[in-house]
Amino acid sequence: LLIFVTDAAVSAWKRGLHQRALVLGGVTFFSIVLAVIFSNLMVKGILPGAFISLCFLFIVLAMSYELSMDLVQAHQLANDLDVSQQRMRLAASAADLGMWEWDIIRDRVWTSETGPSSPMAVDLQHLTIDRYFELIHEDDREPTRHALKQALEGNGELQTELRLVGPGETIRWITVRGQVERDTNGKPLQFRGVSMDITERKQAEIELQRHRRDLAHAARVSTLGQLSSSLAHEINQPLGAILRNAEAAELFLKRSPLDLDELRAILADIRQDDQRASSVIERMRLLLTRRELQFETIEVGALIEQVVSFLRAEIQMQHAILRIDLQGEIPRVSGDRVHLQQVLINLLLNSLDALNGTPVAQRQIEIHVTQNTDSMVEIAVLDRGPGITSEQMPHLFEPFFTTKIKGSGIGLAISKTIVDMHGGRIRAENNPDGGATVRFTLRVAKQEDRA
Amino acid sequence: MTESKQTVFIVDDDPSFLTSMTRLLRAMHYAVASFPSAALFLAQRPAQTTGCVIADLQMPGMDGMALQQALAQSENPLPIIFLTGHGDIPTSVQAMRLGAEDFLQKTVSKEELLAAIERAMKRDIFERNHRMHQRELQQRFKQLTPRENEVLAHVLRGQLNKQIAADLGIDERSVKRHRTNLMNKLHIRSVAELVQLTVKVDIGSDTAEPSDSLV
User: Fold this and answer.
1) ipTM greater than 0.85, yes or no?
2) Higher pLDDT, B80 or A292
3) pLDDT tens across A216-231, in order?
4) Residue A96: which residues within 8 A CB-CB, separation 6 or more?
5) H-assigned helices in A44-109
6) Could you tell me the pTM of the whole model?
7) What residues in B contact A226, CB-CB < 8 Å?
8) What is the largest CA-CA distance in chain B?
9) Residue A269: which of B16, B60, B85 has the nearest Cβ?
10) Within its chain, how far is the Cα of A276 from the centroid?
């Protein structure tokens, strides 16, 4: 009993409850002194033996005081905890936040009742991390695992977005943030964090992307319509050659002896022209496909070459001369080939339109490629047309703004959207020596993409 | 009229079409000469050639239309057939208006192409003969003296010798003499023939010299 009260006193002192410690300590000291006096008096026979139990009475009193105080406090704490839990739940549900914990040592995942995981129809109380991963959309499992691993090995912070698959294949997008807690040796003990449902935001984003993609596609279709005449020319050229060769071969076959060398040469030419025609169709087909943004590593020179071969007939019809200037060694950029082709086609067609009406000797277009900074490559399309007026300048990249009779006004707006999506910037300016230049930047591909 | 064989001149910047076209026409026993550009053709073609030109409409540098104009102004214009990968109506109308023999797609059938070449060849012979005849007639008019030209102009207006003599301030016998000389030089016997001849030669557009006094 004595030990219990002493222990209570010491721990009370440690917890900073000095008054309680003093009371308990005092009672203990008093009891001991009393016991010593009583035992002396008892030995001398002044007091009867029963008096010694008086000391125990004090000790028991002190003990019950301590116990009742603890009970009151526990009750108080339970109340406080309840209130604070309610507050937290309120705050969490108001912010649409869920809370989670992963006890790494015992592999137990706990998630709060509110928040994104709640409609998942699984027993949330007995989750292991592997069971939790089964809830994640299969495409997101690997990236999430990777993010988790990085957080555990790195600075301990986790921030990622993933999809949870619920009953009936319903998909919820959630964003997860968390923090690792470690012991003094740096060994991770648990992960604790919040999650938030971002499905609506994500759907809006996807919808927006879909609209952009459709619009870009529509613009490409309309550009191809614009180019139909020159493209038909590009295809008919080899088709005509194939036809003439076939007709010539028919005539050669009637001769005797057969000129086999000539016939072989004809067949080789037919094959080559066939490939030429199909490569034009392939380029058209690529531009006509509706597609998501697919980032890849692109060589700028080759990209320009493809676009120029596509527009060759158009440029020729306008009697324009195109000069391409790649300054130094241009690193590869990261981007979507088709969309970047679209930007270049738009800019070149704009330049061609601007040159229409200027003297033939002046119909020059230049493409300059430079490495702008360590991380950016700049492509500039320059023409010697009439330039851009100060009234036009601020509206240039607005949708449906056009200066052409037949223009739709989406070319530059689409180009801006595409460049923005690539993390680049596009701007237009007048040249000091006449004409206009539109320049845009693209990100240099990262080393790891380059392999 | 000309004895040398008619040649088909092919002008196209597309090497593969140029080869195939040359191949086909040679197989059909035409004399063929091919050129990769209009400028080269104009610079290298022999001065006295007969035949026709098959040219691509769209070419870098000098295009088909420019070639047509340069040819028309030359001493030896040849009929031109335009070939195009894909032609629109306005361009074809313009080409035909400027005197193109034909305007064909490159994928046209062999038969149509040959028909066009044959028409162009015939037209070349016809126009060449016509040009030579014209030149000969013009030569006759060039032999006239200024006085004979004046008399000719008055005769064409339907004036009598007496009126002409009065207008020119010479006597009637001189007018008669000028008229006889003039008729002899132009190889004609009547005023009716004279009128026909002047209409044929179309004096005023082809030759500059007599036009001042005639009309």
Assistant:
1) no
2) B80
3) 788 888 888 777 877 8
4) A115, A116, A196, A197
5) 53-94
6) 0.61
7) none
8) 74
9) B16
10) 40
